[in-house]
Amino acid sequence: MSTLWEDIKRAVKGGYITAAGKTEELTKIGKTRLDIASSKRKLDKKFNELGSTVYRQLSDETTTEEEKSSRINELVKEIRQLEQEIKENEQKIEAIKAEEREKVNQRKSEQ
Predict the structure, then answer these.
(1) Would 18 be classed as within a structural domain?
(2) How many domains does the chain have?
(3) Distance from first CA to last CA of the chain, Å, rounded?
């Protein structure tokens, strides 16, 4: 038969482990969200650059079609890359959350 003190120790230990795990999860998620925000800022800049490039090229009659499509294609490629980074980071957040849920469930089953 366990004593009250042992029950308290077990509960405090379980709370500590849960809090430590949650802190780690929130830290990872926070860093990943910062990465997403950074990629979104870069994405906005690329869209602005794409728009101004298209405008300049359409306004400038001396620019050849090859020069026009070259820079535009380059910008589109960079935009797609940034969109992929954002998607991967969003998936990373979901994976971190799922991993933490699994850890919590495992700890609960051990108690």
Answers:
(1) no
(2) 1
(3) 16
